[in-house]
Structures are given as structure tokens and as C-alpha cells.
Design brief:
Radius of gyration: 17 Å
Distance between the termini: 17 Å
Strand order of the largest sheet: 2-1-3
Order of helices and strands: HEHEHEHEEH
Length: about 210
């Protein structure tokens, strides 16, 4: 699961910066997902240690009466643009001194390598699979790590246009296993009607 909407009035790229919390709408999104998964066979919960992920997990943990594990492996991707606005107008792209960071989008040169994200997410998912063997686990993470591991599982290239990620706020990306192998990937948006219009219309490509 991707976390809900974050209170970010200045519009910065918050990344791994602490003390970014869910907005009121984000908490409603989390409640909606808790209602959506209430009937599932969830026996194990995992959350990124960032506040917005833990707050998204709170109503889900109450629903199942479980205490989530905090796992650094599902944290947001590291990004050298953290704390800045990312744009051409008043953002980091206005400063030519930052352009060097964009030299290699395949790696990417501005942040954590995609292959590294895949490895840590695979490891975290495997740990959760083992702990929930025969049942279901729910992990709250972040958009880029979720989309990156999904792309790897579905054999797509890892570098991509961020506007085409199918991973909206409070969405669920489901990996179904047969034994130790992932046999299918599903996607759902239980809080779609709560999404800001710009986010609800953003994804236009196929997965």
C-alpha cells in the first residue's frame, strides 16, 4: 500500500525528511483502505518507518488487532533533491548547478539506484511472505519503491516517466505467490473518489 496524502503546504520533495505527516484527507484515505481490507486474511503488517506511512497503517492495525513491524527496507527512495521544490519555475531545475544530478536517468544519478530499490523491496516482501505463510501480509511503503518492484516483477525497464506510475495515494498493489514465486500482480484504488483531481487523472498508460 502507498501511504495517504501528506500535509505539504510548501510543495517540497520531502523524501525521507522526518516530520511530514498525513493531511486530514490522508487520514480519511487510510480509514477507507482499512475498511476495504477488513475482510482479508491479513496476519502480518509492515510499515516504512516514516511518519506518513506509520499514520497510514494506524487504522489498519486497529482493524486487525496487530502491531506492525517497522522495516527500513520499504522506506522511500533516497533523493538528492529532498527539501527542494522540483520544477523549472521556482524549483531546483531553475538552478543550472543542479542539472548535473540529472545526467543519467537510467541509474538514476539524482538518487538511490533502481536496482538497489528492487533488492531491498524483494527482501522485505519475501520476509513478509514467510511471516504470513498461507495468509496475507500488508506493507505500507511509498510510490517509487512500490512502482520499481512492480516494474521488476513485470519485466519492465526500471527507468520511467514518473507521471506514468500506476500507484496513486492509498492504492494497493498486490503480489500473489504460489510457493516462493510471484504468479500475478493486482492493483486497486479503494480511495479513488478521495484523490485530488490532478492525481486521479495522472496515470494514462498501461502496466
Amino acid at each position: 500500500m502507498r501511504h495517504g496524502e501528506v500535509h505539504n503546504p510548501t510543495g517540497v520533495l520531502y523524501g525521507r525528511i522526518p516530520d511530514f505527516h498525513l493531511s486530514e484527507l490522508g487520514r480519511k484515505m487510510a480509514d477507507r483502505v482499512a475498511e476495504h481490507v477488513a475482510g482479508r486474511d491479513v496476519v502480518h503488517l509492515v510499515s516504512s518507518p516514516l511518519e506518513r506511512a506509520q499514520e497510514t497503517m494506524e487504522p489498519i492495525a486497529r482493524t486487525f488487532g496487530l502491531t506492525p513491524d517497522l522495516d527500513e527496507r520499504v522506506i522511500e527512495a533516497a533523493n538528492l533533491f529532498e527539501g527542494r521544490k522540483f520544477g523549472v519555475g521556482d524549483g531546483a531545475l531553475k538552478n543550472p548547478g543542479t542539472w548535473w544530478l540529472l545526467r543519467n536517468p537510467v541509474k538514476p544519478s539524482w538518487g538511490e539506484p533502481y536496482q538497489q530499490i528492487v533488492r531491498r523491496m524483494r527482501d522485505a516482501i519475501e520476509t513478509a511472505r514467510q511471516k504470513a505463510a498461507g495468509h496475507e501480509a500488508l506493507i505500507v511503503s511509498h510510490q517509487l519503491p512500490i512502482w520499481t518492484i512492480r516494474s521488476a516483477v513485470e519485466n519492465r525497464r526500471l527507468w520511467h516517466d514518473p507521471r506514468r506510475r500506476q500507484c496513486s495515494l492509498a492504492s494497493l498493489t498486490t503480489f500473489t505467490f504460489h510457493g516462493e514465486s510471484i504468479v500475478s500482480v493486482g492493483y486497486a484504488e479503494p480511495a479513488k473518489d478521495l484523490l485530488p483531481v490532478k492525481d486521479a487523472k495522472k496515470f494514462v498508460g498501461g502496466a
